[in-house]
């Protein structure tokens, strides 16, 4: 007998929020594009989709029967079969632009709530007879990690993911146990270790206190500023326009950059992969806005999703929150801009705000979904940031779906508000790219393409700068070694 999880019976609080916050011009739709060298075998695809619906029941259900004080439940539609959610399409032209246009049109098409809230578009007519799958699902089903887990389980990574799931439970248990410390005699003795124990302990304690004060001050300033933006009737200037939000959307993605090259930048300037990519994207947006003569804001603000999952949590539901990050569009050099990005990310990672927001919405919409705020409140909050930025880590090696290797793997988050940009950083098979969804509006022509087309070029400039910094460091080290001799 199969045990049905509570998350597969009742729509969770955060799941309900994603249903409440959307309107016809800003759908909460998560999308992904996979490309293949050739057409896939239909029987193999059907077999995989049947397994997907069995292992993740939300793919076979739709939310219904919501009451004022009762959340909706996941209900199986009468007479539904997964083939009903498959759409076939042939492009009129075998170009990237034609594929992007078709996918953008599907992003603004609402779901039919008499069927489960997902679709698979099988697209032919690409260049060199290639084939594409366009996945489309409502954010109410799950967060990014949940979708990654579910879709990748249908690929050749399925067995590996099962092992990782089992290992994560074991490793999480081990973390709760007190680690046994071992003396590492292979490391050279540092100046810190040469100090008397009492002095090094006091200095270490003072350093820890000062660092904590710094972190809490950064978090406090950041969180107070976010609260102030929600309360005050202020809005951003860049990417915003008057009137109703455009119903027409634009979708684009960048050329790839190598993860090895990103490591080179990190070696020269520090920071995480996320920090470096936020630096590049900030400069791309700055360059685009200045090219059309419309940059007014000094900071670009992104909603940064924050996963609240335990290492052992592989559930298919929304266990995510988020915070705003503010990244400088002033004329800062690479090193100073990266430090500014790191400070913002430090505030987001150490803030209790995302956890408090998650717990609040989870409880509120699980007990009184009928007391949801008006759409004007949602619109005000959603229109504050310039967009959403999420990191979607993909497989490090090429994988297969229904017996065919996935050539390109791209994912896109929904937009946050009017004029905003929904942007995702995607890594796959040792390469990284960005994808974006934006409104189509005459005031900001081709935003998505304008940002994505600059990505590889902007990164190359930073990479060249990083290589120069590393060569300088190596030259200085060589000179010191010669002097010592």
Could you please describe the fold and organization of this structure?
- Pathway: Glycerolipid metabolism; triacylglycerol biosynthesis; Lipid metabolism.
- This protein is an alpha+beta fold and 485 residues long.
- The chain has a single domain, classed as 2-Layer Sandwich (Chloramphenicol Acetyltransferase), CATH 3.30.559.30.
- 44% of the residues lie in helices and 19% in strands.
- It has 13 helices and 16 strands.
- Strands 7, 8, 9, 10, 11, 15 and 16 form a 7-stranded mixed sheet that branches.
- Helix 9 packs across helix 10 and helix 9 packs across helix 13.
- The N and C termini lie far apart (75 Å).
- About 5% of the residues have low confidence.
What's the topology here?
Layout: H1 13-21, E1 29-36, H2 42-55, E2 62-64, E3 73-75, E4 86-90, H3 96-107, E5 118-124, E6 131-138, H4 144-152, H5 158-176, H6 191-194, H7 197-231, E7 249-253, E8 257-258, H8 259-269, H9 273-291, E9 299-307, E10 320-328, H10 334-350, H11 353-367, H12 375-383, E11 387-393, E12 400-401, E13 404-405, E14 408-412, E15 421-428, E16 431-439, H13 447-484
Parallel strand pairs: 4-5, 9-11, 11-15
Antiparallel strand pairs: 1-6, 1-14, 2-3, 5-6, 7-16, 8-16, 9-10, 12-13, 15-16
Domain O-acyltransferase WSD1 C-terminal: 332-461
GO molecular function: diacylglycerol O-acyltransferase activity; long-chain-alcohol O-fatty-acyltransferase activity
Transmembrane segments: 216-235
């Amino acid at each position: 007998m199969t045990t049905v999880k509570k998350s597969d019976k009742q729509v969770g609080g955060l799941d309900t929020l994603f249903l409440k916050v959307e309107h016809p011009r800003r759908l909460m739709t998560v999308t992904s594009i996979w490309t293949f060298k050739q057409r896939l075998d239909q029987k193999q695809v059907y077999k995989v989709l049947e397994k997907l619906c069995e292992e993740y029941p939300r793919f076979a259900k739709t939310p219904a029967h919501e009451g004022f004080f009762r959340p909706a439940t996941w209900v199986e539609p009468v007479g539904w079969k997964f083939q009903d959610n498959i759409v076939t399409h042939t492009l009129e032209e075998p170009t990237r632009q034609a594929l992007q246009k078709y996918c953008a049109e599907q992003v603004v098409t609402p779901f039919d709530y008499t069927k489960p809230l997902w679709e698979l578009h099988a697209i032919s007519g690409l260049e060199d007879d290639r084939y594409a799958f366009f996945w489309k699902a409502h954010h109410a089903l799950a967060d990014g990690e949940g979708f990654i887990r579910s879709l990748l389980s249908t690929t050749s990574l399925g067995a590996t993911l099962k092992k990782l799931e089992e290992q994560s439970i074991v490793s999480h248990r081990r973390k709760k146990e007190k680690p046994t410390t071992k003396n590492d005699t292979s490391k050279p003795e540092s100046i810190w270790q040469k100090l008397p124990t009492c002095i090094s302990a006091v200095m270490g304690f003072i350093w820890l206190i000062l660092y904590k004060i710094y972190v809490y001050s950064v978090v406090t300033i950041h969180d107070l500023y976010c609260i102030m933006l929600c309360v005050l009737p202020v809005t951003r200037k860049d990417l915003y326009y008057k009137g109703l939000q455009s119903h027409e959307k634009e979708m684009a993605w960048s050329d790839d950059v190598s993860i090895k090259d990103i490591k080179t930048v990190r070696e020269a300037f520090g920071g995480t992969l996320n920090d470096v990519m936020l630096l590049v994207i900030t400069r791309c947006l700055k360059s685009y806005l200045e090219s059309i003569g419309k940059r007014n804001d000094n900071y670009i603000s992104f909603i940064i999703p924050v996963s609240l999952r335990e290492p052992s949590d592989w559930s298919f539901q929304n266990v995510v929150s988020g915070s705003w990050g503010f990244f400088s569009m002033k004329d800062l050099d690479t090193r100073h801009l990266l430090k500014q990005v790191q400070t913002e990310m430090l505030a987001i990672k150490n803030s209790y705000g995302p956890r408090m927001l998650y717990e609040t919405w989870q409880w509120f919409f699980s007990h009184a979904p009928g007391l949801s705020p008006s759409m004007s409140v949602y619109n005000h909050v959603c229109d504050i940031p310039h967009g959403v930025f999420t990191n979607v880590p993909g497989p490090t090696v090429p994988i297969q779906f229904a017996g065919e290797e996935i050539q390109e793997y791209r994912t896109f988050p929904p937009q946050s508000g009017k004029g905003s940009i929904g942007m995702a950083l995607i890594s796959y098979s040792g390469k990284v790219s960005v994808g974006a969804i934006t409104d189509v509006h005459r005031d900001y022509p081709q935003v998505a393409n304008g940002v994505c087309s600059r990505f590889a070029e902007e990164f190359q400039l930073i990479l060249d700068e990083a290589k120069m910094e590393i060569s300088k460091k190596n030259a200085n080290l060589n000179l010191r070694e010669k002097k010592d001799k």
